[in-house]
Design goal:
The chain has helices at residues 12-24, 42-54, 69-75, 89-97, 113-125, 132-145; strands spanning 3-7, 30-31, 60-65, 83-85, 103-107. The chain is α/β, with parallel strands linked by helices. Helix 1 (12-24) packs across helix 5 (113-125), helix 2 (42-54) crosses helix 3 and helix 4 (89-97) packs parallel to helix 5 (113-125). The longest helix is centred in the C-terminal third of the chain and has 14 residues, at 132-145. The protein is globular and about 40 Å long. Bound molecules: D-ribose (RB5).
């Protein structure tokens, strides 16, 4: 498992808290910023993570912005990336089990740090179920190749 994290300024504190939670659990990760609270553009950071995941350099990406919405929109423009915006552990579990999501998006202005920690933990711990879901994930790939 290789994890890459990024945020924009509006997701900075939550990203840092999620990084701390991984550190506490001894889970290795790469954090690609930003490091200050200066305003940045979320598409830049979503692109960084999405490209790395699409290239197979990382198995899981984590993106945090104010709502998680902008990050998920940008990440999902990348072929091979299945980004899921989650506000509950249930969504995180389903995103992995049914959709084989490889990027988790969360909103710092939407969920608290405790909830987000739980979401991340479930996202990383849940395997893809495969089976009937594999065919549907393949259909997502087919849509990507129609572009
Ligand atoms: C930044 O103010 C905010 O627009 C951004 O973090 C995000 O919520 C966009 O989707």
């Amino acid at each position: 498992m290789k994890i890459i994290l990024a945020s924009d300024h509006a997701g900075l504190e939550l990203r840092q808290d999620l990084a701390a939670s991984l550190r506490e659990r001894g889970v290795p990760f790469e954090d690609v910023g930003p490091t200050s609270r200066d305003s940045v553009d979320y598409p830049d950071f979503a692109r960084k993570v999405a490209r790395a995941v699409a290239a197979g350099e990382y198995t899981h990406g984590v993106l945090v912005c104010g709502t998680g919405i902008g990050m998920s929109i940008v990440a999902n423009k990348h072929a091979g990336v299945r980004a899921a915006l989650c506000t509950t552990e249930f969504e995180a579990r389903m995103a992995r089990a049914h959709n084989d999501a490889n990027v988790l998006c969360v909103g710092q202005r939407v969920v608290g740090a405790g909830v987000a920690r739980g979401i991340l933990e479930v996202f990383l711990a849940t395997p893809f179920e495969g089976g009937r879901h594999e065919r549907r994930v393949q259909m997502i790939r087919d849509v990507e190749s129609e572009r």
